[in-house]
Each structure stands twice: as structure tokens, then as C-alpha cells.
Amino acid sequence: AQSVTQLGSHVSVSEGALVLLRCNYSSSVPPYLFWYVQYPNQGLQLLLKYTSAATLVKGINGFEAEFKKSETSFHLTKPSAHMSDAAEYFCAVSGFRGGSQGNLIFGKGTKLSVKP
Amino acid sequence: GAVVSQHPSRVICKSGTSVKIECRSLDFQATTMFWYRQFPKKSLMLMATSNEGSKATYEQGVEKDKFLINHASLTLSTLTVTSAHPEDSSFYICSARGWDRGVSNYGYTFGSGTRLTVV
């Protein structure tokens, strides 16, 4: 079974401050991990993904995440927040079973607010 | 990059009528399509998974006779909400996974979502 836990349903930072959104996963198979961003009334946009290559993954818009197997974590960071980063962020996990990649399992999401 | 076009973006329908939502993969072959439902301020709930040419697999608690899914081609999947009721009002999102120039894309490409309001 797989699951994702996002710590903090709401994170607020000041513009220019570090963004840290936490994600811990549970998976019985080697996981693939994803971070998505969702703006109001829109679909999900992929920020970055970990697919068993480099453990430090760089994504779009200056975001990056580090896969830490020992901590079962995949936290999302950005050195300097921008007003346009305000959105809902979802961490997700999938894995292979029998050679077939399963569906995404989503965390509950973290709403990021950026204060001027 | 991979693009999934979802239509309509918003629809308002009367209670008892049916609504069809389309998702098209524009530049890749979507061998698998996932349909999600998202309640306000909530995460995405997987409704069903469909593989091209096969019957959809529905998640527990999802009525397959109410939410009809068709995935007849590698570029098109549809979700039809039959006999819609106000409690079906929600945000529906499709997600496609497939092959691009012979390479499986391990990511999932999402449509832009459909806001359904049943009055």
C-alpha cells in the first residue's frame, strides 16, 4: 500500500523567504514521487518528479525536492518565495507493481500563502 | 511537452440531465486515463482508471452506472455523469499517462478540470 502525508495544510511565508513544504511517503515498492501545483479552478501542473535517478530533483519555477529514503521524505523547497507561488501544492506517490505503474496517490495538499 | 485538453471547463446543468466531459491527449498516446473528483479544499479522489479499449476500473464507492467512462481511442476519454444531482456538483479532473515517441512518460499529465454545477 502507498500513502502520502503532507504536514501542514496551510503554510504562510513572506515574499523572498524560504519555502518548505513537507511530504512523507509510505510505499511497499520503490516509489516514484511527484509535486504538483494547482491554481484556483485549474488542473494540476507538474513541478518535479523523482523516478529513481538523482535524489535531488530540480523542477520548474525554482523549486526543488530531495528524496531521502532513510526519512521517507520528499520535501519541496524554494529559496525565495514569489507572490506568484501562492497556490495549492500536492505531493503524490506511485509505484510499479508487476511491471505496471500504478495510479497516483495524493496527499491532502498544502496551501501556500505569500505575504508582501 | 505532453498536453491534455479537457472540455468543458465549466458546465451548469439541470438535475436529472446528463453531462459529458471530454479529455484529449494532444501530442501523445494516452494508454491510461485517470478520472479524479475534487471537493472544495480537499485533495483529489480517484474515481476510476481506464485503459484504452478496456472497461474502466472503478474505485470502491464510485457508481459505475452513474459515472460512465469511455476510452475508445488512444487520444480520447470521456466521463458522462448520468442523471446528475446537486450532490454531483464538483471539480472533475482527468489525467493521462502514456507513450511519447516510444518512451513511457512516467509522469501524469492533467487536464485543466471541469467545474460541474447541478441546479
Draw up the topology in text:
The complex is a heterodimer of chains A (116) and B (119).
Chain A: E1 3-7, E2 10-14, E3 19-26, E4 31-38, E5 44-50, E6 56-58, E7 64-68, E8 73-78, E9 87-97, E10 100-101, E11 105-106, E12 110-115
Parallel strand pairs in A: 2-12
Antiparallel strand pairs in A: 1-3, 3-8, 4-5, 4-9, 6-7, 7-8, 9-10, 9-11, 9-12
Chain B: E1 4-7, E2 10-13, E3 19-25, E4 29-38, E5 44-51, E6 57-58, E7 67-73, E8 76-81, E9 90-100, E10 103-104, E11 109-110, E12 114-118
Parallel strand pairs in B: 2-12
Antiparallel strand pairs in B: 1-3, 3-8, 4-5, 4-9, 5-6, 7-8, 9-10, 9-11, 9-12
* Mean pLDDT rating of chain B: 89
Helical percentage of chain B: under 10%
| Quaternary structure annotation | heterodimer
Number of helical stretches of at least 4 residues of chain B: 0
Number of helices of chain A: 0
The major sheet of chain B is characterized as:
8 strands, mixed
As a percent range, the share of helical residues of chain A equals under 10%
Provide the β-strand percentage band of chain B. over 45%
Instruction: Estimate what percentage of residues of chain A fall within beta strands.
Output: over 45%
Low-pLDDT sequence parts of chain B? none
What's the pLDDT, averaged over the residues of chain A?
Answer: 90
